[in-house]
Amino acid sequence: TVTLEPYVWIPALEGDGSADGSPEVDFEIDYPGELSAAFPLALVLEGPGGGAWRLDALYARWRDDDGATTSETSVSLLEAGHAWRMDERWALTAGLRAVDLGLEVDVLGVGSDASATWIDPWFGASGELPLRAGWSVRARGDLGGFGVGSDFTWQAAALLGWSSKSWRLELGYRALAVEFDDDDLDTELVAHGPQLALAVRL
Hints:
ten-stranded antiparallel beta barrel; 13 strands; 77% strand
C-alpha cells in the first residue's frame, strides 16, 4: 500500500546561533511569526508484516528583525525511516535524516552567513491509540545525531485523526530540534507548531 501525505506545518522558531564568527543572536519567532515558507510532503510504503517505509521532505525559512539585528534561517530536510511493528499499537523506528541548514545574520549593518549539510542517524518509536468511530491518537518521537552529523537532534509529534478506508485527516502538534556546531556555524534551534495532514491511500 502506498500512502501520499501532504501536510501543513506552521512552526515557530526558538534558539540561538552565530554564522562565520558573527555575534550570537537569539531567535524567538512566535507563531505565525515571520515564517516565509514551509513546504512539506510525506510518502509511506507499507509492506507485508505491518512494517512501513516513510519518506519525508520539508523546506522552511524564517526571518527575524528586531531593528539592530536581523537574521534569516532556512532548513531543508529529507528523511527516510522504517517502522518495525511490535504489536497492533506500537512500532520501533529508525532511519537517516539529511539536513541543510543556513543562517544569515546582520548586526548593525555588518552581515555574515554560513551553511552546513549533514546526515543524522536516528531511532525512536511510534504508537497509535484507537478511540471510537474511526478516531485515534497517534504519537511518535525520535533521537539522533550523536555527533555523527549534528551534535544532537530530537523530534516529537502527537496527532488526533479520523480515518476512513482510503484516507485519514490528522491535526496535532510537532516539534523538531537541532544542535549543530562547526567552525562556521554554531546553532541550537527548536521549530514547533501545529500540523494538519491529509493522508490518501493509493
